[in-house]
Amino acid sequence: MPDASSPVLRFAPSPTGLLHVGNARTALLNALLARRSGGTFILRLDDTDTARSRPEFAAAIAADLDWLGIPPDLSVRQSDRLALYGEAAERLKAAGRLYPCFETEEELDLKRKLQRARGLPPVYDRAALRLDPAARARFAAEGRAPHWRFLLAHLEVAWDDGVRGPQRVDTASLSDPVLVRADGSFLYTLPSVVDDVALGVTQVVRGEDHVTNTAVQIEIIEALGARPPRFAHHNLLTLPSGEGLSKRLGHLSLKALREDGLESLAVAAAAVLVGTSRPLQPVASLDELAALVDLSEISRAPARFDPQELTALSARTLHVMSYAAARPRLLALGIAGGADFWLAVRGNLARFEEAAFWWRVCRGPLAGVRAAEDGAFLAAAAAALPPEPWDGETYGAWIAGLKAVSGRGGKALFLPLRRALTGEDKGPELAALLPLMGRARVAARLRASDGDLQAADGAAIPRP
Ligand code: GLU
């Protein structure tokens, strides 16, 4: 267990759909704040809604957190903890803060309509509190099971929100919330506060859609004799159209972004930095990103999340990725090119997997591209190749000599070489690729005999 002074934060999704980048924002803010201060990051699955919760979504959430690099220190499921919520409900009943109500949905609807018609806010009128024992007995005899509402104290509840600053909510403006349904199942509120207390959560960072819940939750926590955690409510992310992200509709799911080959570090950086006063920037590690988290810099307005900006950030993340970070992934792709290879190609990658293409350009068979009129020039280029060993200087020496013998310069000089050596018009610096290819391969490609050199597996290089 962590020592009592270290922070405890939690991410509390319901396993009712795939996590999207907006959920990732919440998860990351909590995980990175915990990580930065040696605290604990808890994954709490809010799965009391048995009709909509699914084990496959719970598994997908765990996989998404792993992919983001923030596996939880502890995972709990609310469906395992129902007894705790039952005990808390009994304590609230004993304290007179949880009272039975017998209205049906239709009756409540009608009440709200009448209130609106009279220009009143649709706040529950507490009629159930005024029922006499005989009336209650009548309901019981009819077989009506009560649902249970928390008796708000009608106080001004204040907290200093980590994002929004000082907040005040007068709970007299709110309906007493239903905590327990007539079938005995719990709505989100009570399990959430019971767990926050039981797990020693010190700070709750969540979306601003929960701001009004907070006053109610603070009242319940205090009614249970506990101290509320600190709260921070971040802005929500939207689609570029401004439409809110929906887990149910599968908007910008982490699974889809992963399958699209985007860098998890870029997704993390975008999810955390968008809608703050900081620009989107590539980071080298989650620790670097954690150092950039500042709740007070999060904007109050919803933030549009642009998938194209994410794609660009993902590429920029690769362009600055160290060889140490890339190495295990290169090896997993069967690329043993070392740091020289990585540093040569990373600046040309949009997706990590494209490294495999450039590795085959360096070491595989190649169908070069050449114009007929370049044959003699390329033969001259082959003849001008310096002897090995080759290094980063080889290319410069070779080109200087070639310029002199061919009289060519600029594009007429470089493009035929690049096409013959790589099959492409663009790509990594030839100076860096040359030593990786080696003299025999370079000479063969210039003489258009690379196919012979690589006769063993002459498959064409698949396009990235
Ligand atoms: N299950 C809630 C949600 O996903 C958790 C809210 C909270 O963090 O308290 O919105």
Quick take:
Helices cover 45% and strands 11% of the residues. With 464 residues, the chain is mainly alpha-helical. The chain has three domains: 1-97 and 149-320, HUPs (Rossmann fold); 103-145, no CATH class; 324-464, no CATH class.
Please give a structural write-up.
The chain has 464 residues and is mainly alpha-helical. It is built from 20 helices and 12 strands. It has helices spanning 21-36, 55-68, 82-94, 105-117, 133-141, 189-198, 211-223, 254-259, 264-273, 286-292, 307-319, 323-332, 338-345, 354-363, 375-383, 394-406, 410-422, 430-437, 439-446, 450-453; strands at 8-11, 40-45, 74-77, 98-101, 147-150, 156-161, 165-170, 178-180, 203-207, 230-234, 237-238, 303-304. The strands form 5 sheets. It has a 3-stranded parallel sheet. The two termini are 47 Å apart. It binds glutamic acid.
Give me the secondary-structure topology.
Elements (H helix, E strand, L loop, with lengths): L7 E4 L9 H16 L3 E6 L9 H14 L5 E4 L4 H13 L3 E4 L3 H13 L15 H9 L5 E4 L5 E6 L3 E6 L7 E3 L8 H10 L4 E5 L3 H13 L6 E5 L2 E2 L15 H6 L4 H10 L12 H7 L10 E2 L2 H13 L3 H10 L5 H8 L8 H10 L11 H9 L10 H13 L3 H13 L7 H8 L1 H8 L3 H4 L11
Parallel strand pairs: 1-2, 2-3, 9-10, 11-12
Antiparallel strand pairs: 4-5, 5-8, 6-7
Helix pairs in contact: 1-9, 1-10, 6-7, 9-11, 12-13, 15-19
